[in-house]
Amino acid sequence: MALIKTTPTTRSIDDVDLVSLSYVSELCHPFETLELMQLVDLAIARNGSLNITGVLSCESNRFSQIIEGPASAIELLWNSIKKDERHCNIFSLGIKKIKQRSFANWSMRLIDGKQMATFDPKLKSLIAK
Q1: Residue 80: how many CB atoms within 10 A of its CB?
Q2: Residue 83: helix, strand or coil by DSSP?
Q3: What is the pLDDT of residue 111?
């Protein structure tokens, strides 16, 4: 399944374009702190191998995440996220081309919802639900 662009462009997204994807989802079961830390550790290793960077927030029963990297790697990861049984009601805010990474030093970092909303204002209303 191809990724959907959030805004029309004159040129389609190529596999090598640098892109950012934001999404929210509900947890299918509550996470313990240790489970969340293990998930972040796994994401750091996986994302590093895919040249993906990003941030994750987990508050109440909701995940929000922004990932960035080459379009082909983001599509691969996004397909994996959509199949992950820890998520329910996954909602993508779309994909957009970016000129540079916002999280170049973090293959994955856990942050709070308020910080997350500063990186993508569309997340603000979705995180608060």
Answers
A1: 10
A2: helix
A3: 92
